[in-house]
């Protein structure tokens, strides 16, 4: 059975059994918080459990590395939406140790793309400096500080927004407060 078929079968049963009942929640975050974290698959359940965040408690944004790359990135837009339209009042940027973005070099990824058959002329079509765009980071703490600084200094950030930076251990869920 294909993964999709399996998923759809499971889903049909999930709804039929009303298994969604424990997850019913309002569409505004109860704890008025926005969390930006990495897409790492180890954090799917661990991160909210380790933070005591339940369905409906927070706005959760995910990206590679949990980075807020620029003041006008999609992540920053989502943060602003959460603060202005969804009643969130605090932003938590949570990086993690052993992150796939740690030490990732654009050159390596570009090479991987070439090996997977992306033709040379395709790279020329990119409307962005790929060598910068595809780079990871060298220090998760520095990256968290950088993201916090982008959010804190954003010209459109509502006054009195709290912005915190933390790093999580993806095995134990232990948090370290960075900024
Ligand atoms: Zn990561």
UniProtKB/TrEMBL annotation:
<comment type="similarity">
    <text>Belongs to the beta-class carbonic anhydrase family.</text>
</comment>
<protein>
    <recommendedName>
        <fullName>carbonic anhydrase</fullName>
        <ecNumber>4.2.1.1</ecNumber>
    </recommendedName>
</protein>
<keyword id="KW-0862">Zinc</keyword>
<dbReference type="Pfam" id="PF00484">
    <property type="entry name" value="Pro_CA"/>
</dbReference>
<keyword id="KW-0479">Metal-binding</keyword>
<dbReference type="InterPro" id="IPR036874">
    <property type="entry name" value="Carbonic_anhydrase_sf"/>
</dbReference>
<dbReference type="InterPro" id="IPR001765">
    <property type="entry name" value="Carbonic_anhydrase"/>
</dbReference>
């Amino acid at each position: 059975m294909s993964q999709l078929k399996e998923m759809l079968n499971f889903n049909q049963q999930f709804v039929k059994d009303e298994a969604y009942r424990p997850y019913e929640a309002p569409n505004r975050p109860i704890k008025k918080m926005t969390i930006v974290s990495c897409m790492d698959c180890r954090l799917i359940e661990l991160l909210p459990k380790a933070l005591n965040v339940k369905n409906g408690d927070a706005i959760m944004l995910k990206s590679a590395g949990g980075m807020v790359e620029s003041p006008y990135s999609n992540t920053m837009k989502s943060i602003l939406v959460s603060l202005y339209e969804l009643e969130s009042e605090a932003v938590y940027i949570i990086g993690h140790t052993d992150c796939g973005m740690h030490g990732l070099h654009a050159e390596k990824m570009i090479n991987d793309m070439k090996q997977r058959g992306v033709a040379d002329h395709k790279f020329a079509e990119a409307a962005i400096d790929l060598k910068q765009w595809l780079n990871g980071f060298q220090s998760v703490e520095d990256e968290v500080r950088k993201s916090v600084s982008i959010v804190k200094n954003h010209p459109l950030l509502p006054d009195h927004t709290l912005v915190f930076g933390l790093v999580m251990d993806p095995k134990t869920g232990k948090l370290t407060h960075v900024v």
